[in-house]
C-alpha cells in the first residue's frame, strides 16, 4: 500500500477501501443464493409477510376519495405526533449531554 500514499493513516484507509471493494466484488455473484438459503432457514410466517404500515388508512377506504383524504389527514397528524415525540426525546438527551459536559468544566 506504500504506492497509494506516503502518509500511514492514508495507506491504512486505502487498504480498507480496496479490501471492501474486492470482497464486495467477490461476494456479489453469491447474493441471490445466500438470500435463498436465508429464506429457507428462517421463512417468514404468513402474518409477518404483510404488515399494516398505516394506522388509519385502509385499502377499502381508497375507493371513496373524501374518506381517503380524511384518513390520510389523520395519518399525517399521527405521524407528526410520533415525529414530534422523537425530536423531543433527542433534544432532551442532547441538552442533558451538553449540560453534563458544561458542568464538568
Descriptive account of the structure:
With 105 residues, the protein is mostly helical. It folds into two domains: 1-47; 52-66 and 75-105. The protein is 71% helix and 0% strand. The chain contains four helices and no strands. The chain has helices spanning 8-27, 31-41, 46-49, 65-104. The longest helix is centred in the last third of the chain and has 40 residues, at 65-104. The radius of gyration is 25 Å and the shape is flat. The model has no long low-confidence stretch (mean pLDDT 86).
Describe, in short, the structure shown.
The chain is mainly alpha-helical.
Task: For the structure shown, list the relevant keywords.
single chain, 105 residues, mainly alpha, 2 domains, 71% helix, flat
Into how many domains do the coordinates divide? 2
What general outline do the C-alpha atoms trace?
flat
Distance between the termini: 43 Å
H and E order: HHHH
Low-pLDDT segments, ≥5 res: none
SSE topology:
Elements: H1 8-27, H2 31-41, H3 46-49, H4 65-104
Amino acid at each position: 500500500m506504500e504506492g497509494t500514499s506516503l502518509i500511514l493513516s492514508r495507506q491504512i484507509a486505502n487498504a480498507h477501501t480496496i479490501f471492501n471493494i474486492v470482497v464486495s466484488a467477490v461476494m456479489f455473484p453469491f447474493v441471490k443464493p445466500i438470500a435463498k438459503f436465508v429464506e429457507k432457514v428462517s421463512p417468514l410466517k404468513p402474518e409477518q409477510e404483510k404488515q399494516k404500515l398505516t394506522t388509519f388508512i385502509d385499502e377499502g377506504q381508497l375507493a371513496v376519495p373524501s374518506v381517503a383524504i380524511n384518513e390520510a389527514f389523520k395519518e399525517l397528524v399521527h405521524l407528526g405526533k410520533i415525529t414530534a415525540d422523537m425530536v423531543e426525546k433527542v433534544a432532551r438527551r442532547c441538552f442533558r449531554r451538553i449540560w453534563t459536559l458544561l458542568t464538568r468544566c
